[in-house]
Predict the structure.
Amino acid sequence: MTETEKVRLNDLTDEQRLLFYKETERKTRRFFWAAAVFVLLYQIYNICYTLYYTQFRLESRASRIYMCLYFTISLACIICMAFGAVWRKSKSCSSHIRLLRLYAAFGGILLLWSACLTLYDQRVSDNLSIYVTTAVYIGMLLYIHPRLSVPCYVLCQIILSSGFLWFHLAKDRDSYGNLVNSFGITMIGLFLSLLRFRTLRLEFLNRIALDQKNREILLQAEKLNYMANHDALTGVFNRNHLNEWSGRLFQTGREQTVAAFMIDIDFFKQYNDTFGHVAGDKCLKTVAKALDSPNPDGTLVRFGGEEFLFLLTPPSQESSDTDGFAKRLCQCIEERAIPSSVPGKSVTVSVGYSQKKIQNENEFWSLINEADEALYRAKAAGRNCAVRFQADPPAD
């Protein structure tokens, strides 16, 4: 494992480490149970066959040694399976870590047992298949930390090498080929075990990094979307959002009731000239915050300069309700008591509004124009008031 990987593993949060152990335990569990059940059933068969073959006498030393080996690994399987079943039902956060250690311990025991059995089989056979199968299976499929896998594989090779050298030196047989083959098998099994260990970790780390990158992309997209649809100064929606809002409104093609309130800060140019543009920006933000509070279901848009547009889409709203809401827009600014350029007076707004049923973009912008025309009438009426749009009577 590289230094970079160590740093990345150490950078994981406790929650991420727990998730890693949980996922790795889930990936390893089925291989542990498959091996444990198979080995247990096979040893039960071996025990029964040995008892039958020796007529339950076990008179030879070989039969007794084989029986000990069969009982030992059977007992190990039963104990590991029992602990595995109990710990799987545990709700504690450390249960996955304990299970992974159990699987690793089982793998180490099975590997050492296969080396001992293979070596004892060399009295009558040159077959290394048991050790080959076990070493490769454990290396490929179980998650074992190098602190355990390296000593286990090295110890197995020491056991096998010692036995093969003893056979060779005792001139019972030429065991040089088995010695070389066992060394190669051990190296392959150890390599597979280390690769499995590292691959599982890197897969998780890469997924964490990818998830983090995706979160950063989504966050950046949200920021860009916010910047594209909100006014940088006041934080309310901008004209771009207004276009999207109207487009969504008429997607169904059904007629919609819309109330539009065009709002303008009275004598804002004089305010800027008196207090400066910094104070003017602060005033704009204060007004925008106040206008956004009377009806949270509405949509407030900075239409341009000191003008704001408030939109409501009530399913059915009486004219008196619309009139009352327009007056509240004026009142909510006056209540803020923002000092104006005229001593003793506060900043006020004028409101022009219109409401009607519309069903397309053209009618929507016609509604906006009506509210804007009503705003000019509010200005002409003395400001700090709300005027509803009324169509001019036809000329005689």
Q: What stands out?
A: The two ends are 93 Å apart (CA to CA). The longest helix spans residues 176-229. Strands lie at 256-265, 299-304, 307-312, 349-358, 386-388. DSSP finds twelve helices and five strands in the chain.
